[in-house]
Amino acid sequence: MNDVGPHRPHTDTPATRPPILSARGVVKTYRSGTQEVHALRGIDLDVHAGELVTVMGPSGNGKTTLLNCLSGLDDIDAGTVTVDGDDLFAMSDVERTRHRATRMGFVFQAFNLIPVFSAAENIELPLLITGIAPRVARKRALDVLGRVGLARRADHRPGELSGGEQQRVTVARALVGEPALIWADEPTGALDSRTAGDIIGLLLEVHSAGQTLVIVTHDEGLGRTGQRLVVVRDGRVAHDGDPRTAPAATELVPAAATLAVTSAEVAS
Ligand SMILES: Nc1ncnc2c1ncn2[C@@H]1O[C@H](COP(=O)(O)OP(=O)(O)O)[C@@H](O)[C@H]1O
Ligand SMILES: [Mg+2]
Fold first, then answer.
1. CATH of the domain at 129
2. Which residue, by CA, sits nearest to atom 17 of ligand 1?
């Protein structure tokens, strides 16, 4: 735990501060018809300020569910999740949505940009929703666009941008609220390998500037060079720590899902 890797810019030990994220015993079971999918079987995870945590594991083993549940995007069946000192599931839905909007940023594989809005409008939208004045929101949007190297694309709509540029806009959108934590779910999954490398580079820059990040990825390079690798297998944390002692690459990304599916008791 708490390995000090090549990308760590901070001098103090993260373990001396309370974690930004603390999850204990998180269980998530999807039920559809007569089937239950045990997507998370008891997740314990702490993430400290300034850490870059890479999450890997075979498809269908619970990585996206982990992100959705630990960020409060989805409900959980058991356990607790504390983010920036607040218990996510002790809040009302409205409070949790607001907490997420102000304390967390998200980068998804499908960029999830609003097509009729310009890059700047997409970025300022989360600020406007939380009540920040339009003039301030626009200035902050243009500032982060500059940070991701897209100052000259502020007025372009997503359809007028390349995939890599669109993903840069989503990184800017995640950054603009100065969140405690940014979640990224396969941020390079829809990009060619060269563009993917650019986006990984951008995320590493963002981390070097002090941002706490949890990145779900199949990018072996990021997984192996990051400071801390979490391997999710069959809804559990199978490895947490030094990437060098993690399972071999072939065990991280096989095509087939291995989750157990059991029949639920169906009440008559
Ligand atoms: N909304 C859902 N309803 C039912 N099953 C789901 C749902 N979302 C995910 N699952 C199942 O939960 C398991 C974990 O999925 P997911 O977290 O998306 O895996 P990963 O991101 O590692 O590929 C899979 O078996 C998947 O089919
Ligand atoms: Mg996924």
1. 3.40.50.300
2. 62
